[in-house]
Amino acid sequence: MRRDLANPRLLRVLNERRLLDQLHEHGPASRADLAKSTGLSKPTVSAALAGLAEDGLVHLVGEVSGRPGPVSSLYDVNAASTHVAGIDIGRDWIRVAVADLRGAFAGRTDGRNTARTSAELAALVGELAAAAAREAEVEWRSITCAVVGSPGVYDPVRGGLDFAPNLPGPPDLADRLHAALGVDLVIENDINLAAVGEHVHGAGRGKANFALVSIGTGVGMGIVINGELYVGARGAAGEVSYIPAAEEPPAPAPPTGPFTHAADPFAQDADSFAEDADSFAHDGDPFTHGATEAATSAPGVVRAARAAGLELETAREVFAAAAEGNAAARSVVEAEGRRIGGLLVAVAAVLDPEVIVLSGGVGRNLDLLGASVERRIAELGPLRPRVVASALGDSGVLLGAVAHAKSRAWDLIFDARKH
């Protein structure tokens, strides 16, 4: 380390990074202010700013007058000097955002996930990425870093995704994404990225210890401990879909009548009844999806509604019917709240978080689920976790992906400046 510190180039880069971190966190500042806040000498600050400005990473944004002495120039990060991308791959939707170095979205494109194979999925992601770049008025190939949020756990050694039954096969998606996107690419679990988004922009902001539990097409959890994302020894921390369920999920039945044409993009044509039935049964497989996911996810809610005699196709319709006062739908929602409450007690017992954030198409419905969640928590013991709904809507994963990409981009920029 001592030898490294004797390297003038490395010292210069460390000083530049210190100044940029200060500007990024606190906004425009003069040379004198930067010297005071960083502890660097004024000549060192001037030299570092000159190098950063020459490469377009900082720029002049104004002047400060009214102080004793000459007018002072104000410098700030040139956020538009580099762009990053966040990509959210879900079963129903794919979302891509291109953002600047402050994380502000410059372009965003959302598209239905109609892919039936990994090759189709990678091609579709590539098309949406190019569209988002066009909206941002940048070339996709100029993106410094892209972060993909995907269901499952990425194994960088094998290059494969584990625990991702909601994505189409074969299991070569990671390689195909690298080939389709052609930029520096990081693949992360989508719920972990949603937790990062919540930590930066949402209900987890300012919290050192919290959990985000997402309940939608699947069930998963992102964990923040001491202000850092926790993923476990093999990246599988938070795979709560595999926690044993308190009750068995309703037995799946082949769709009939109005259920033949599901709103889901994976629904088959009317003459593909057998495939539809296989897909529906697969959704209820506790081994593939986990017992908690099979019972508690959106497909589980639909199965419970069908078992109750409701002619409804989606979890959204079940909650809408409950909101309108349908007794059977309210009973289904009550049972769903109890399942969620049991899951949250398990989370609280292990993690003791400051807050549990519920997200996902099902989890966000705390206005309807809240009472039954609270009752079930009270029944199970003295633990009383604070539970709130995410306010980030469908942008949580994207915001987390962009935050991660932005952090990696800075690292890549300064690694390059060392050489």
Offer a few descriptive terms:
single chain, 419 residues, alpha/beta, 5-stranded mixed beta sheet, 45% helix, 18% strand
Can I get a quick summary?
The chain is built from 16 helices and 14 strands. It is of the alpha/beta class.
What does this structure look like?
There is one protein chain. The chain is of the alpha/beta class. The protein contains 16 helices and 14 strands. It has helices spanning 2-5, 8-26, 31-38, 42-54, 118-136, 173-181, 190-201, 273-283, 286-289, 291-296, 298-307, 315-323, 327-351, 360-363, 366-379, 396-417, and strands spanning 58-64, 72-77, 84-89, 93-99, 105-112, 145-150, 153-155, 160-162, 185-189, 210-215, 219-225, 228-230, 355-359, 387-389. α2 crosses α4, α7 (190-201) crosses α16 (396-417) and α13 packs across α15 (366-379).
